[in-house]
Structures are given as C-alpha cells and as structure tokens.
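Lab notes, practical 5.
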Amino acid sequence: MKDFLLITLFFISFSSVAQMKQRVADDFYAKEEYAKCVEMYDELVEKAISGHKKGKTENIRKAAESHFHLFQMEEAIVHYKQLYTRGELTEHDRMHFIDALRFSEEYDFCTKIARESAQSFPENTFFARFVANENNFYKLFSDSSFYKVTEASINSGKGDFSPAFYGHSLVFSSKSKNAGFLTQKYGWDDAYYLNIMQSNFEEDSVLQTPKMLKNHFVSKAHDGPVSFNENNTEMIITQNTLGKKKGKEVIVLSLYFSYFKDGEWGELIPFPYNNEKYNVGHGVLSHDGTKLYFVSDMPGGYGETDIYVSRRMHGAWSEPENLGTMINTERKEMCPFVEEGKLYFASNGHFGLGGLDIFETSLESNSTPKNIGYPVNTSKDDFGLIFDHSGRLGFLSSNRGDHIDRIYHVVKRKANIQLIVNVFEKYKELEFVPEQPVTIKNMVTNEELVLLTDSLGVLNTSIDANTEYRIYTSKEEFVLVKEASVQTEQVRTDTTFVRELILKPTTIQIHIRVVEKGTGKIIPFATTTITDYGSQTDTTLTTDENGMVTIVVDRNKTLWAHGSKKGFIDADISFNTANENDKVFDVELALSPIRKGETFKLENIFYDLNKSTLREESKASLDKLAQFLLDNDLKIELSAHTDSRGSSAYNKRLSQARAQSCVDYLLSKGVAKKNIRAKGYGETRLVNRCRNGVKCSEEEHQENRRTEVKILEVN
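Output from the prediction step:
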C-alpha cells in the first residue's frame, strides 16, 4: 500500500509540473516572448511522443511557431512536418511552413506544399502567387554578377540592421549595447533592446569602429530604425511606446521627428498618426522632403504590415495613403527606401527566395515590383537596402549565415546596355547600308547623337539606363519605313537591344535597251524619250554604243518609253515602276527596219467621245511621228479604225474625220502633204471577234479603236 501511494503521489506531482509548464509556456507565448517558451514546448511535445501519446496538436503548433520566429528553421520544419503528417496544418501554418522550407532552401518540397495549399485554399493569393511563379526560383540567381555583397566591418555579431546615411557616416540599429544597467532584455529573442550606432566613413568608404549615438532621445526600449532628410537637418526615428490592444497593455512602434538646430537635435515630436492600437514605424522621406513613406499594421490595410505614404502640405502631414495591392500583399511589406524615383522595400508576400526579399518598383508607374535577386536576396531575411546618390554603393541588412542580423556592403555594377542598329535598304532581300548616319535622340534630355554604321551596315553603341531613345535615319531617294525606339527604364541587368531601320527606295533605275526587231541586234546612238504623262514631262537620251540608256525615275509611276533612229520605225512601250523588289527595271525597245508595206500602231491617240477632235495628250505621240517622217523620206497612209458599235456608215465617217485630224496636225508640224494621206476604215478591219451582234468587253472593243501608220513608199 505504501509503494502504491508513493507512485500515485509521483504521478500527481509530475502531472502538476507538466500543467504548470504548460501554463508558463502559454503565458510567454501570448506575450510573444518566444525565447522563453520554445524549450518548454519542445519538452511538452517530446514527452507526449515518447510516452506513445499523440501529443497536443496546439503544443506542436506553438513549438513550430516559436522556432520560426527565432529563425530556428530546421527545428520549425520538424514540427511543421509533424502537423503535416497529422493532417493538422492550418492555412496560417502552411504559409509559415512554406517560409521555413524556403529559408532552408528546400525548394522542391516547398513547391509541393504550395501546390497542395493552393488547391485547399483557392482564395489565398499568397499560395496562388507562389504556384504561378514556382518556375522562377532559379531565375532569381541569373543576375548574380550584377551585385557584389560583402559583410561590413561594423557588425557586433549580436544583431545589427537598418542602416541609414547620415552626413559622412552610417547609423544603424544594434542589439550590441546595453543603454543602462537596469536595461532588460527583449523577451522575443532574449537580446538587448535596440540602440542607434554611428560609424564614420574614412577614405575609400572604409567604416570606423561604431559608437552609440547618445542623445536625450535614446530610451531604455527599442530605438530605431532612424533616417534623415537630404540636408541631415531632420530625423525620423522609430521608438517603442506603450499601447493597448484588446484591453491589454502592449508595446507598439511609433514615429517621431527631431530637428537639428544650434548644434544639437531637438525634442522628439510625434507623428500625428501614431496610435496606441497599432504600429507606425520605419519612416523615410522622399528626396524633396514632401512625402513620408512608412510601415503600419493599421486597420484597413491589405496584409500583416503595409507601406503607406503621407504628404507634407503647408507644414502638416496628410492622412496616410496605402500604396495599394501592387506593392502591398497579405503578408509583410516593410523597410521602405526611396532613391531616384524608385521605391525599395522588403516583403515576404511577393514571390522570392525565402524570408524577406528586397524588391524595387517605380514610384511613377503602377508596375509589378521586381525581385532584385541573388546575391542581394537569399533564402534568409534580407531587408533595409539603401543606396547613395550614385545608385551604385549601398548597404543592406540580412540574417544569412547564422540567422543573426548583420549589415552588408553592396556594390551595384552599372548595367552594360548596348544598342545594335541594323540599317537596311528594302529590295527583294534586305541589304545592309554601310557608313549610313543614324540619329539616336535622348527623349529625356533631347540630345541627338549621330553615328555611322560600320562597313557592314551595323551600328553598335552604349546607351544609358532610365532613358527613352528615338532612333531614325534618312537617305536621299529613300523613305524610312518606321522609326525605332528603346526604353531602358526597367533595365537592371546587362542588356543588348537590337533594332532595325529599313529604308524603302523612292526611285528605281531604268535600263532601256534598243534593238532591231527580229534579229535582236543592238542599235547604238538611237534616240529614246521617257514620258511621264502625269507630270507632262519628257526626258530624251541617246543610247550608247551598246544600245543602252540608264535613267533614275520615281517608283509607282506609269511611264512611256519611245525609241527612234533613222532607217527604223519608231517603237513605244508602256511600263510601271511599282516594283518594290528590284533595284533595276529593264525595258527593251525593238525597232523594225523601214520597209514598204510595214504597218505599225500609234499609241496614245485620244479623241473626244463621238468626235474627231484630238485631245491634248494625243499630240506628244503625233509629234514623235512627225519627227520620224521628217527624218525618213517616206510616204505613209494614216488610218483610223472604230469598233463595231454604231452604224457602218457613221463609223466610216467618224474614222475618216479622225484620220484627217491627225494628218492636219502632222501637216502643221512640217510634214509634206504629198507624203501623207488620211484613210478612215470604220469597222471594216476589226482585229478580233467583236463584230455586230457579238457580246464583247470594253477592253476587246478598245483593241479595235486604233490609229495605224502604213508605209507606202521609201524614197
């Protein structure tokens, strides 16, 4: 009986201890003092499992969450996997499980959990965003040569982060110093409260040993992060203050301003939108000091913490405005920094490598933030990125390595942006244009740079980032099909832009060759005339010893070529220069030797409808015939013909009158009356089937309406 009582008392005592440990652990957990409760939860979970009990699910969850908040991700993953095996993962658990797996670079298993979570919780945008980008993990490593990240010399190894430029120094928040002998440690991670440290720059950006920035605003709780305006006359500091949430006293973050006057910083002035019910912190000013960007978990936001902006108008700050869902997610956005129109911030809601990743976006355009990628971002927490005015030298905070926040020096290599311009002339195949001037206009500065293509017709030059360019060229007898443009605003890596400029020729070279009809023998020193009826212009040229003439004419024209030489019958040909594929258009004029009985058609002889009156455009062709008759001592018959429509008698009279009109005009040009006679044949010599009663097209009837010349005698 005595032994039984001892055993009973032992189990009662053990049960009481376990219950007490549970209450103490839960109390610390409720206060977010994870460093004090994490081992208790591990013991409670382990004893339940070793005792062949399923274990209390809530203890497993709290053990996982405690390790997670202390960045002990391997231990957190063990507990999350226990919940996963039990089928007890909540929506919130799954988000932290994914974070822990990314933190430990277990990307494949992380993707598996994300896919399952997206199916179980289709309304969760975090899961959906993750699955949509799951193939982009390794793309975030593609620009690894663009940044060089090295640990700064100022780290204490106890927690240093959120750097800010202050004159010729760097200030940052640190857990390395105890502000006073009564200062307590922070229960979340059992570290000292934050204090502000300052390290001056030496030559070559070397930092001196940091010292604590002492002033009346240094408190015995968290101080920092801190930032300054452009002139270092205004400071914005984040401090802990007491607030209330659900009736309980809690610590919240608040923003304060201080102004440098008479050699010292003045009293702290609270930001008017501080509130005891929520956090307001991590403030940073725009370059002109008119906008304050900060982080808050105030009601009405989109996630755990969002980035807001307040505008300074007439010395007062406007109601904070949420930057919207393009920037803010359902998770945490924090640590804003503004530089040259860009907003840099940290987020664990946008797709990234793990933990907090750093993103950049334009404040002018509503574009999706870009993950800066490795090595700025890692699978751990990376945040608090700042750059100097060059945009190339900066610092960031990260707990990469041993999960302790440290400050890292960042050197951003300037992007090498190349522009290649290929200039072509458009023929059957595109042909490069060597040594062609190309104008590159900077649309930001309106500066124009004129460069030549090389011997191969290619231009290669460097251009600047954050600029829009207009690219064009011009050349005589060519028209540019389309200008080119390049936007480099979003370019962050080495990039080569290739653009084409295509010149379309407005002229074409015409080769006219004059030969003897039938034999094809060349006829040297013949007279050729190219007529543009549209502009009423003639160009007369003499063939060379090879029977050739060359002329450049406009494209998309209908022209007539006329050839003549003593001893030969003149020849005409119509051609169109709409051809866009060739450089040269070949035309051949075949002249027949003058022989008795030879008949040829006169082109471009026009009369008014049902009249014999010559139209003005007919005279050019008759002028050439007059010259032909004067150069060669000939007797001819000039005949006119009609189609079959109308009566035979009417057509006979009309054709005779028309033939006589031509003869009268030739006589006026000096042709001897004895060498020419007019003859109207009406419809008696049709050249096709279009007789009376036969249905024909207008084109077929036109073949019969003609004016001809027949050689009667060669003197």
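Observations recorded by the TA: The domain at 596-715 is CATH 3.30.1330.60 (60s Ribosomal Protein L30; Chain: A;). The longest strand covers residues 248-261.
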